[in-house]
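Support reply, case 0932

Customer input (verbatim):
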Amino acid sequence: MVTIATFNEPAKAKQVRQRFQEAGVRADIHNEGALQRVAFMSKPQANVKLQVDDDDFERAQTLMNDWQQNDPAIAAAIVRCAQCNSSNIEYPQMTRKALTPGLVSLLCALRIIPKEFYCQDCHFTWNNEEERTIGRLWHRFFPGAEQTG
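Our regenerated output:
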């Protein structure tokens, strides 16, 4: 399965999945909301992944492009990379496949290191204005001001 779109809201993902099913494309939803809320102690964002089979990806991508042009609500609901426009996004920016996220999630919860969106396609990261770091420890080792809007 390949991620075709990432959403903040499960309801929007379900609407698009229904459209895929009506078009004959098998689509599944993977929701990381509970993981983000508990393990990463954050408001779930970019947590709902709409995935399609590898074989259906090109057709699904064509359908998505058409739907986004004709329905602004779909286009507005999809979380996209600010650099490459991909919807293959992780939040927070850490892997879920090892023990290291436990330590990193603790540091994120304490707001020592910032939580950032991460594009898996172009590796671009950008911050979330809603959750600012409160400590300066991060900036002591990684200089540079936090950018605001």
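We compared this against your earlier run and they match. Two observations from our side: Strands lie at 2-7, 27-31, 48-52, 89-90, 116-119, 125-127. The two ends are 34 Å apart (CA to CA). Please reopen the case if you see a mismatch on your end.
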